[in-house]
Amino acid sequence: MKIAKKWTKFLIGLVVLSFGLVLTIKSNLGVRPWDVFHIGLTKYFDITIGQASQLTGLAVIIISFLIIRVKPTLGTIISIIIVGFLIDLVVAFIPQPVNIIWQYLYLFCGILIFGTGVGTYISAQCGAGPRDNLMIALHKKLKFKLGIIRNGIEVIILVIGSILGGPVGIGTVCAALGTGPVVEFSLNMMNDSNDN
């Protein structure tokens, strides 16, 4: 894949996933574990959700480097900056859902859009996000399966975020169960298009 095409796909993926994130946040039905943590941080510090995401990403990069010297790629740095910026930009323009039907519509559309964005940016192969780097670092260090590491990280983050006051609900469960299959489907579609 040509460099320009790769980076264009990468950036489009970040824009799409950011829009999906905001929809799940606006649904007020609960969000993914990392977003529970990000929103929880905003209740204790004078920062936005996007800034909380950026600061968390930076902290995760440092932790990954300390664990097994995983150096962030340019794509990792760009993803932290852009996603945090876009969350704060988009959240100001998306209206609150007017009733429970719209809340669930926001939630399920958000999960689909977020998963599609993740699959798109991963398929560009411009670098993993900071949270994925942490998962890989712990996998190499502890020798546990990636799935166990990922679930363990998300449970810990979810508990901490919940204690901080982040929104946990049916949306958290739906996002946990639904995001993976959407990402996998999107990634397969993108990889097929790369091969053609």
UniProtKB/TrEMBL annotation:
Alphabetized UniProt keyword annotations: Membrane, Transmembrane, Transmembrane helix
Regions crossing the membrane: 48-67, 74-94, 100-122, 155-178
Matching InterPro entries: YczE/YyaS-like (IPR038750)
Protein name: YitT family protein
Organism: Acetohalobium arabaticum (strain ATCC 49924 / DSM 5501 / Z-7288)
